[in-house]
Design brief:
Blueprint lengths: L5 H8 L2 E3 L8 E3 L10 H18 L4 H7 L4 H8 L7 H11 L3 H5 L11 H15 L3 H12 L1
Antiparallel strand pairs: 1-2
Helix pairs in contact: 3-4
């Protein structure tokens, strides 16, 4: 199972080389519809902002949230201010303790992964949210309709 060549993979996904000052080597990224690629530092800042806003929508202070993550308030604050980078595991834990979906925390940081314009992003996120509330039988029905 050799799979596609690196060049073929890059071409198939339309990845573009990016010189990101926070990364030692050239990286490849999917350009958003507006063509402006968000570099890793700004991406981290956007995720931190999204997490803070999700916490604030729930009327939770960092003081209340930090112990749920096994952290001091000062350590948690480093995540919201982009001083420390979140691991995927910590992000999953945040989703659990905030009662948030991964889309709620990540979509504001990288809209282009959910749609080519804001209207489509909003519609897709609303659909995902609605699907989460369906029971398994209803999900099977929805899936059957979409593939039949």
């Amino acid at each position: 199972m050799a799979g596609p060549s690196l060049e073929q993979w890059i071409s198939d996904l339309d990845l573009q080389p990016v010189n990101d000052p926070d990364v030692d080597k050239a990286v490849y990224r999917l350009p958003p519809p507006d063509g402006r690629i968000t570099l890793s530092a700004a991406l981290e800042e956007n995720i931190c902002t999204s997490i803070r806003e999700a916490r604030e929508r729930r009327n939770l202070s960092g003081l209340k949230l930090a112990p749920l993550l096994g952290l001091s308030e000062a350590v948690y604050a480093r995540y919201e201010t982009s001083v420390s980078r979140l691991t995927v595991g910590r992000l999953i834990h945040l989703c659990e303790v905030l009662g948030a979906s991964p889309e709620e925390l990540l979509a504001p940081a990288a809209h282009h992964l959910w749609g080519e314009n804001q209207s489509k992003v909003d519609l897709l996120l609303a659909c995902i949210d609605k699907l989460r509330g369906f029971d398994e039988e209803t999900l099977q029905d929805v899936f059957s309709c979409s593939t039949g």
